[in-house]
Amino acid sequence: MSTTELPASPEFKANHAELMDGVYRWQRHIYDLTRKYYLLGRDRLIEGLDVPPGSTVLELGCGTGRNIVLAARRYPDISFFGLDISAEMLETAAKAIDREGLSGHVLLARGDATDFNAKALFGRDGFDRVFVSYSLSMIPGWEKTVSAALASLSPGGSLHIVDFGQQEGLPRWFRSLLRGWLKKFHVAPRSTLREVLESESRRTGATFRFRTLYRGYAWLAVLGQPGRQ
């Protein structure tokens, strides 16, 4: 494998790609340093992937590659794939992966997480694990990302999601301050996330686990597809 970017899916949303490139053209250089203080629960998601040797893992909205690098260190016998709509972020991710000597384990591609062709982008029909970390709150039509992620799972695979909750156990002033800050980066916590995931789990026959973290600051969910019959 390599970190060479593959051609973008022709269906990806050009306007959103341009927006993300504009937002992160400079932010990507300090993104990981600053986000570690408030993108909580990412490491717990990675620990919970519980990937068997020889499996395949896809991250939707891979950004700077921070999560893929950590996951590849933790699961050295796994093939990783990363998808992002921002060329700027993918450039940073590719450099991070090469710097860590992980180019043999990771393949990156540019595309739209709401509508992507895994076969065309990665040469894969499905993945054993798919995870989405703090990306649904940035994606227009994010519900389609959930559907697309579930459709890309191999039988017996699982989808892992962590993102902002509704801060239901935190003071109102904190919620207002956080929402105002996130809005500057076109981020909006999804109030219907749990309902959408429950609905999708019923539609696909997937199991569903959901938990709140840090008094509702973050939500963590796992949807598991039935195995082969």
Could you provide a short overview of the structure?
The protein has 229 residues and is of the alpha/beta class. The chain has nine helices and seven strands.
Mean pLDDT comes to 86
The CATH superfamily is: Vaccinia Virus protein VP39
Query: How far is the first residue's CA from the last residue's CA?
Result: 31 Å
**CATH T-level fold name:** Rossmann fold
Measured on Cα atoms, how large is the radius of gyration? 16 Å
**Unreliable sequence segments:** 1-12, 19-37
Order of helix and strand elements from N to C terminus = HHHEHEHEHEHEHHEE
Strand order of the largest sheet: 3-2-1-4-5-7-6
The number of distinct helices, counting runs of at least 4 residues, comes to 9
User: Into which percentage range does the β-strand content fall?
Assistant: 15-25%
